[in-house]
TrEMBL record:
Protein name in the entry: Uncharacterized protein
Keywords linked to the UniProt accession: Aminoacyl-tRNA synthetase, ATP-binding, Cytoplasm, Ligase, Metal-binding, Nucleotide-binding, Protein biosynthesis, Zinc
Organism classification: Bacteria, Bacillati, Actinomycetota, Actinomycetes, Micromonosporales
Origin species: Phytohabitans suffuscus
GO biological process, one term: isoleucyl-tRNA aminoacylation
Superkingdom in the source lineage: Bacteria
Length: 651
């Protein structure tokens, strides 16, 4: 009797190749008794260096801890036949497992040349344990799971143990393996199972487990969907190094997933390859103009040279360590950070030295750029090759040795102080941008409140020039410019104090807390590391002063944004210099060419240039500077969009 009949809608398995429905069916299977040596697999996993590191005790470690016996047989025709022969009469049971062709030839009396079905299934013989002689030894019908073969790769590829025994025993386990992160339950796992069972050691020493590349639509990258940029179009538009860098520096190499977009590839050019190329172009332009043949030196006493040399030594050591640990994306991050210091700080702050033909500047830049090419070579091989060959005239950067960090003078204190100075300048320039104050407009004063005021004070002139202010004041009086803000982390504090966490949060929000021995105390609870965040934030400066925090909460910068008529005039003169430099480039003049300059502008701009005539003439290499309302030539803007016209002529 049917009591009830209903229809259920549910997901149903389909073949990933032909998309036809699959039927579940329970069948007998052959297993590897993984549970017998599971604990040893967990122990051997600790000898493997995983990238990302969390995989060791995370997805892979947990998978090992819960490993079950492994079904290694499949009911298919194609595949490696399981080398097991079984009696066809249960009354006389016998199972033979074969480990070599020689064993098969011994028992069956024929030379075996084909191990695949159906030929291998034709090998039969009488059951030696059957006195009646009627039962037969026949091969079991199953074939091996292909993952069993994949897991056998390290030894099967060299036909071990039948050949290359000595070679294998000196080259196993492998140094390095890479695949996507799902192989923690696939290839990585099956190799580890067989290595543990057969050799009692890991199958590999280092494993890089990457994430999945997605299409531009966020779905898995697919040839049928064509949801990714055309590779050859990317190569033609941006170069193969751009795609390589995008992939090498991406979260994919830390086990994360990432869509591949042309925008990300374009960013590789903008943020890394183009700045690197621009340094080479800048060096070659000025070195050729000065007819200076640079040499490798690390002994310059100039402050900026000492900084960039020490920074280069740190880069070499850091990237070497990261590459040894297979932290490729970390190495890319280190290179990009270094490039920012090289291009946006060292080169820009040293322009006048290159213009004047400073030998120390040329030799230092040659040295660090040649070293940088060798560091970058594994990450951007074509760009590094082109620059290195142009720089040295050598055959190939890829035939050189890795740089020696010990060659460069170490100065951790200088690097730390100069990097802090860069942070100060970055914060101050951000304030300028937020207030709409162009960099060429000088301002009166910048105040820097930081605990490291004493260490940074010797760099005051450098900061003043970079930020374009008349004076820089460093002070350790944080209370006048900053206030401390305490934030509780309930997720970390809650398990320790229970219900009291709400009272702590309430006290902190009310400002009812204090520091005792360097740790905050609120509502009678002393907070521990990790349970709170204590930051310095900028207090309201008031008036014409505006403030911004330094990175890491290490203080604030306060910028006086009041613009006097004298400052405005100097700013206009600097803007005119920029327009003239653009006119020089438009006229395709060499950087060493002297010019006669004519300027058509408003009376205000003319007065500003006249007040700073010597400065303008020196900056643009003008042997003659005159004001001509009828001047025709290059048009530009100064100040708040005011039009000026400049005419330059080589003299």
């Amino acid at each position: 009797m049917v009591v009830r009949q209903e229809t259920y809608t549910h997901s149903y398995p389909h073949c990933w190749r032909c998309d036809t429905p699959l039927v579940y069916k329970a069948v007998s299977s052959w297993f590897v008794a993984v549970t017998l040596f599971r604990d040893r697999m967990v122990e051997l996993n600790q000898q493997i260096n995983w990238t990302p590191a969390h995989v060791k005790d995370g997805s892979f470690g947990k998978w090992l801890a819960g490993a079950r016996d492994w079904s290694i047989s499949r009911n298919r025709f194609w595949g490696s036949p399981i080398p097991v022969w079984k009696s066809d009469d249960p009354a006389y049971p016998r199972i033979d497992v074969y480990g070599s062709l020689a064993d098969l030839e011994r028992d069956f009396g024929v030379a075996v040349t084909d191990l695949h079905r159906p030929g291998i299934d034709e090998l039969v013989r009488p059951n030696p344990d059957d006195p009646t002689g009627r039962s037969t030894m026949r091969r079991v019908p199953e074939v091996l799971d292909c993952w069993f073969e994949s897991g056998s790769m390290p030894f099967a590829q060299v036909h071990y143990p039948f050949e290359n025994r000595e070679w294998f025993e000196h080259h196993y386990p492998g140094d390095f393996i890479v695949e996507y992160i799902a192989q923690t339950r696939g290839w990585f796992y099956t190799m580890h199972v067989l290595a543990t069972a057969l050799f009692d050691r890991p199958a590999f020493r280092n494993c890089l487990s990457h994430g999945i590349l997605l299409g531009e639509d966020g779905r898995k990258m697919s040839k049928s969907l064509r949801n990714y940029p055309d590779v050859y179009d990317v190569f033609n538009s941006h170069g193969s190094d751009a795609m390589r860098w995008m992939l090498m520096s991406s979260p994919v190499l830390r086990g994360g997933d990432m869509p591949v977009t042309e925008g990300a590839i374009r960013d590789s050019v903008r943020q890394v390859l183009l700045p690197l190329w621009n340094v080479w172009y800048f060096f070659s332009l000025y070195a050729n103009a000065s007819r200076h043949e640079a040499s490798r030196r690390v002994d310059s006493a100039h402050l900026l040279d000492r900084y960039v040399l020490a920074k280069t030594g740190e880069l070499v050591a850091t990237v070497r360590r990261q590459m040894d640990e297979y932290d490729i994306s970390g190495a890319c991050t280190s290179v990009r950070s270094y490039l920012d210091a090289l291009t946006n700080w060292y080169v820009r702050r040293s322009r006048e030295r290159f213009w004047s033909g400073d030998r120390d500047a040329f030799d230092t830049l040659f040295t660090v750029l040649e070293t940088l090419c060798r560091v970058v070579a594994p990450l951007a091989p074509l760009t590094a090759e082109e620059i290195w060959r142009g720089l040295t005239g050598g055959r190939s950067v890829h035939l050189t040795d890795w740089p020696d960090a010990a060659e460069f003078p170490a100065d951790r204190d200088l690097v730390a102080a100069m990097d802090a100075v860069r942070d100060v300048c970055s914060a101050a320039l951000s304030l300028r941008k937020a207030r709409g104050l162009r960099v060429r407009l000088p301002l009166a004063q910048l105040t820097v409140a930081t605990p490291a005021a004493g260490d940074l004070r010797p760099f005051a002139d450098l900061v003043a020039d970079e930020v374009n202010v008349k004076s820089v004041v460093f002070t350790g009086d944080l209370s006048s410019y900053c206030e401390q803000v305490l934030t509780v982390v309930p997720r970390a504090l809650g398990p320790r104090v229970g219900g009291a966490v709400q009272q702590v949060i309430k006290a902190v929000k009310a400002g009812d807390w204090s520091l005792v021995d360097g740790h905050p105390v609120a509502a009678g609870v002393a907070l521990q590391d990790g349970e709170y965040e204590l930051r310095l934030v900028a207090a309201d400066a008031g008036g014409s002063a505006h403030s911004a925090p330094l990175p890491g909460g290490e203080g604030v910068v306060v910028l006086d944004t009041a613009v006097t008529p004298e400052l405005a005039a100097e700013g206009l003169a600097r803007d005119v210099v920029r327009v003239v430099q653009q006119a020089r480039r438009d006229a395709q003049l060499d950087v060493t060419d002297r010019v006669a300059l004519a300027l058509a502008a408003s009376p205000e701009v003319v007065a500003a240039v006249e007040a700073h005539r010597d400065f303008v003439a020196a900056e643009v290499l003008a042997t003659e500077l005159r004001f001509d309302p009828e001047a025709a030539g290059f048009e530009g803007e100064v100040g708040d969009g005011e039009k000026v016209t400049v005419a330059v002529a080589r003299v």
